[in-house]
Design brief:
Distance between the termini: 41 Å
Strand content: 25-35%
Largest sheet: 6 strands, mixed
Helix content: 25-40%
Number of helices: 11
Shape: elongated
Number of strands: 14
Strand order of the largest sheet: 6-7-8-3-9-10
Order of helices and strands: EEEHEEHEHHHEHEHEEHEHEEHEH
């Protein structure tokens, strides 16, 4: 099978002391919307820079539509549109002037440039601003304009690095709807983000990255079914001490603990008997429990679980 985006044992080292990517292998099918998530410094942006030809891997390969990006960058990048970090724009130009310039960079014909400017600006809801100076645009409008630039040449694959970074709720909603539209027409979208709620809203597959390695990858449907009713929210009479938090984490049935003042969110296996056993254990350890509610888990809880298991694995390996 030819994948839209594929990497094989991708490694990126900086000097002798830092490995940003440590054997990343991805297989993204055509038409998928994939969320690429992990903490800061996990290697998300490094992966994207290699996929878009801005950086070369130390070893391994990255392919777009079966074409090796490092070996044949011009051919590979012809099918990619990208928004990487927060790109600069030209305040003194209008959207038409800026997009015309990039259309020429893409070697599009004059007729195609005119057609795609109209279509792209309409899609991102900036048609009325086609001849206004970009310097007057809000942050959300600028982000939508850079997405219009990314899709101007009608790419098969769209790569977005933190596309809603710094946006207000309205701007986030607009970008979310754009991604849904791209998904509806079969475009492949590779989306890096730390906002798990947004990833859950628009992606059908999620890849979890930590310290340059893929620690988990699955469809949102399977993640949802796996995480159903696997969280207990507990409210205590008073804020928990460090010692009490450690007691919580030592309870065998609890997979992870997220504490905020006098509340704790406990991840467990979702079995009713386990829920009962956890409550009994809390009482036997003299915790003053005010409320105890079993709830459905979300992507944030799955993320906490995955990263918690990764940390435990590292500790076991060092033991």
């Amino acid at each position: 099978m030819e994948y839209a985006i594929q990497t094989e044992n991708l490694v990126k080292r900086y000097g002798n002391n830092f490995t940003a990517l440590d054997g990343i292998s991805l297989q993204i099918r055509k038409g998928e919307v994939v969320g690429y998530v992990g903490p800061n410094g996990a290697g998300k942006t490094t992966t994207i820079k290699i996929l878009t030809g801005l950086s070369r891997p130390s070893s391994g390969h990255a392919y777009v539509n079966g074409v090796d990006v490092a070996a044949r960058p011009r051919e590979a990048l012809r099918t990619i549109g990208a928004l990487i970090e927060v790109p600069g724009v030209y305040d003194y130009l209008t959207p038409r002037e800026m997009l015309t310039y990039f259309g020429r960079v893409y070697r599009m014909s004059g007729g195609d440039i005119d057609r795609r400017i109209k279509e792209s600006l309409e899609l991102v809801k900036l048609s009325d601003w086609e001849h206004k100076k970009i310097g007057t645009f809000s942050t959300g409008m600028l982000r939508r304009l850079t997405i219009a630039k990314a899709i101007l040449h009608e790419p098969d694959n769209l790569i977005l690095d933190e596309p809603v970074l710094g946006l207000d709720p309205e701007g986030i909603r607009d970008v979310r709807e754009l991604i849904r539209q791209f998904r509806s027409v079969g475009m492949t979208v590779f989306l890096s983000s730390h906002l798990l709620g947004e990833v859950a809203e628009v992606c059908n597959t999620v890849v979890f990255l930590n310290k340059g390695k893929v620690v988990s990858s699955d469809s949102m449907d399977r993640i949802g079914s796996t995480m159903e009713r696997k969280v207990v929210d507990v409210k205590f009479l008073k804020p928990l001490s460090r010692e009490e938090i450690e007691k919580l984490r030592a309870i065998e049935l609890i997979k992870s603990v997220d504490v905020n003042d006098n509340t704790a969110r406990l991840l467990y296996d979702g079995q009713p008997d386990s829920s009962v056993q956890i409550l009994r254990r809390l009482v036997s350890l003299n915790f003053d429990v005010v409320s105890y509610n079993v709830e459905s888990a979300g992507l944030e809880d799955y993320y906490v679980s995955v990263m918690g298991e990764e940390k435990r694995g590292q500790l076991d390996g060092n033991g």
